[in-house]
Amino acid sequence: MYYQQEQQTFRLLNNYCLSLEKWREDYKPATPDEDFHPLFIESLTKYEQYNYYRDIFITGTEDERRDFMKIYAKEIADLEARFTQSTKKRRSLSHER
Questions:
Q1: Mind spelling out the 3-state secondary structure of the chain?
Q2: For residue 95, is pLDDT > 60?
Q3: Sign of the CA dihedral with 80 first, then 83, 84, and 85 last
Q4: Which single residue of 4, 66, 70, 87 has CA 20 to 30 Å from 29?
Q5: pLDDT at 28 over 90
Q6: Which pLDDT band, with edges at 50, 70 and 90, does 86 fall under?
Q7: CB neighbourhood size of 68 (10 A)
Q8: Residues 6+ apart with CB under 8 A from 27
Q9: CA distances for 7 relative to 2, 44, 86, angstroms
Q10: From CA 25, how far away is CA 64, in angstroms rounded?
């Protein structure tokens, strides 16, 4: 059970980091006068933090990963809910076509 939760948390963190990287490119302003898209701002403000979290699952000890999952349980649950909601929304839109 724990191993599955650990793997799920790593996948979530990895997917979020990949999304942040994509948003940084996809939503960067085309001109200096263009307003910043909220996802571009999020990519700038959250990437280093979540990349560090992801690194805990790549290079950290089992105790460090367990501690992370306890300390950041709510933050991870919120991120998971956000990704689940956006996935459902995309699926709904694709079925409407």
A1: CHHHHHHHHHHHHHHHHHHHHHHHHHCCCCCCCCCCCHHHHHHHHHHHHHHHHHHHHHHCCHHHHHHHHHHCHHHHHHHHHHHHHHHHHHHHHHHHC
A2: no
A3: positive
A4: 87
A5: yes
A6: confident
A7: 19
A8: 36, 37, 39, 40, 43
A9: 9, 26, 21
A10: 32
pLDDT band at 2 (very low <50, low <70, confident <90, very high): confident
Burial class (CB in 10 A: 0-12, 13-18, 19+), 42: middle
Beta carbons of 27 and 43 less than 8 angstroms apart: yes
What ranges do the domains of the chain cover? 2-96
Average the pLDDT over 46-70 and give the result.
Answer: 97
d(CA 45, CA 32): 19
**What pLDDT sits at residue 1?**
78
Extract the tokens encoding 58.
């790549």
Encoding tokens for residue 80? 């998971």
